[in-house]
Write a structure and sequence with these properties.
There is one protein chain. By secondary structure, the chain is an alpha/beta fold. It folds into two domains: 143 residues, Rossmann fold (3-Layer(aba) Sandwich); 253 residues, NAD(P)-binding Rossmann-like Domain (Rossmann fold, 3-Layer(aba) Sandwich), CATH 3.40.50.720. Helices cover 40% and strands 10% of the residues. The strands form two sheets. A six-stranded mixed sheet has the order 7-6-5-8-9-10. A four-stranded parallel sheet has the order 2-1-3-4, with helices on both faces. Strand 1, helix 5 and strand 2 form a beta-alpha-beta unit. Helix 8 packs across helix 9 and helix 15 runs antiparallel to helix 17. The longest helix is centred in the middle third of the chain and has 21 residues. It is globular. Bound molecules: NADPH dihydro-nicotinamide-adenine-dinucleotide phosphate (NDP), pyruvic acid and magnesium ion. The site of NADPH dihydro-nicotinamide-adenine-dinucleotide phosphate (NDP) has 28 residues, from helix 8 and helix 9. Pfam families: malic, Malic_M.
């Protein structure tokens, strides 16, 4: 098949193809150049840690890479905003998550793309390979299957299972939104929120906002069929939790008077009229990747009192789960956490929120070719290249893990003194 890629698309293909196909490889961490080293790395030396681990399974964290290795697992059913591309085509995204885990938090990743025809097929596969890993990052598995997969895996294995599109996204949305509302002079408790997308990201984000003080009755969830309301008989149990009693039906109805729009759905679904109908000083997070629900250019043309974020790196205010999963897993792995719970998620929210108020380091300004960046409408959340993320977020997550009793170890010796 001959395709006509644009210059920018061709650059993306070349980046992935050259100098070797793909974005990630394995690295050897021990010397293996002499007969002596070979006998330590392989037989006979390798038998000693095998016997140790067979006697004491926790020794796997000491003698293997288990404690620093995460599986990024998908079935390819909700790949970015591209939909169900299948397992194979999702691999560049999963390798990309591996790049971010390693670059930002030093965590190694195997990406696991599974051809699965049911939630149980994913659960059985992941449970069977779990001994290899210190954590499982579920990625781009569509709702509602993602909820069942995560719940069943949490019941079956004793390492953290974290669906990034649910909880990673929710954490970053919450941190960015709390800051944006402060700037707009609004309170989460009284805010009318319209969320377009009632899948993995939408449901989990609204649940976390409720845990942080948003009122369930102030949230209007919208899916392909319009507003999620109590008169509908096609709702799954997760959507039903947010069903409101209302005569309103369409996305346009849901946008009128809203203080906040969260888009976790698909490209170009919001028009100028909908934006214009929102309340004064609104917050608009159009987070579908790669194409947002509304382009920032259109939003700015329409009104100048909004705070706007996208999931992308090339506009101000990138609200994207890249700010979460590397640092959250770092904190969880460093204390041998058995789970990543809501308290750990909320600790990450507050750490990210607070960091946005601090002066921005020069290295970040250079990476973004900006002279200044300061807390305000165009800087509500730290940038992924901020070197303080790794200093601030993992300790906050680790502290919450220890306090809630899910940590296997105490405060890491290399963490800042408390
Ligand atoms: N910036 C970020 O960090 C992140 C962004 N996202 C983005 O969020 C989006 C959804 O991801 P995810 O939740 O994992 O996917 P899911 O498949 O789990 O959910 C998608 C949801 O979007 C709704 N939707 C899709 N297209 C439309 C449409 N044309 N009109 C109305 N509703 C629509 C679906 O409606 P229905 O239920 O009726 O099918 C569904 O509720 C993607 O675009 C993804 O890129 C996701 C995670 C992180
Ligand atoms: C960022 C991400 O995980 C997504 O768009 O699916
Ligand atoms: Mg994703």
């Amino acid at each position: 098949m001959t395709r006509n890629w644009t210059e920018e698309e061709q650059q993306a293909l070349d980046y992935h193809a050259q100098p070797v196909p793909g974005k990630i490889a394995t690295a050897v961490t021990k010397p293996c150049e002499t007969q002596r080293e070979l006998s330590l790395a392989y037989t006979p030396g390798v038998a000693v840690p095998v016997r140790a681990i067979a006697e004491e399974p926790l020794d796997a964290y000491r003698y293997t890479n288990k404690g620093n290795l995460v599986a990024v697992v998908t079935d390819g059913t909700a790949v970015l905003g591209l939909g169900n591309t299948g397992a194979l085509a999702s691999k560049p995204v999963m390798e990309g998550k591996g790049v971010l885990f390693k670059t930002f938090a030093g965590i190694d990743v195997f990406d696991i793309e599974i051809d699965a025809d049911s939630p149980d097929a994913i659960v059985d596969t992941v449970a069977a390979i779990a001994p290899t890993f210190g954590g499982i990052n579920l990625e781009d598995i569509a709702a509602p299957h993602c909820f069942e997969v995560e719940r069943k895996l949490k019941e079956r294995i004793d390492i953290p299972v974290f669906h990034d599109d649910q909880h990673g996204t929710a954490i970053i949305i919450a941190a960015g939104l709390l800051n944006a509302l402060d700037i707009q002079g609004k309170s989460i408790h009284a805010t009318q929120i319209t969320c377009l997308g009632a899948g993995a990201a939408g449901i989990a984000s609204m649940e976390l906002l409720v845990a942080l003080g948003a009122r369930r009755e102030n949230i209007m969830l919208v899916d392909r069929r319009g507003i999620v309301h109590t008169g509908r008989d096609d709702l799954n149990a997760y959507k039903r939790e947010f069903a409101v009693e209302t005569g309103r039906r369409t996305l346009a109805d849901a946008m009128a008077g809203a203080d906040v729009f969260i888009g976790v759905s698909g490209p170009d679904l919001v028009d100028a009229g909908m934006l214009a109908s929102m309340a004064p000083r609104p917050v608009v997070f159009a987070l579908s990747n790669p194409v947002p629900e509304v382009r920032p250019e259109l939003a700015r043309e329409t009104r100048n009192d909004l705070i706007m974020a996208t999931g992308r790196s090339d506009y101000p205010n990138q609200v994207n789960n890249v700010l979460g999963f590397p640092f959250i897993f770092r904190g969880a792995l460093d204390v041998g956490a058995r789970a990543i719970n809501t308290e750990m998620a909320i600790a990450a929210v507050h750490a990210l929120k607070a960091l946005a108020h601090e002066p921005v380091p020069d290295s970040v300004l250079e990476a973004y070719e900006q002279e200044t960046m300061k807390f305000g409408p165009d800087y509500i959340i730290p940038k992924p290249f901020d070197p303080r993320l790794i200093e601030n977020v993992p300790p906050a997550v680790a502290r919450a893990a220890i306090d809630t009793g899910v940590a296997r170890y105490g405060w890491p010796a290399h963490y800042p003194q408390q």
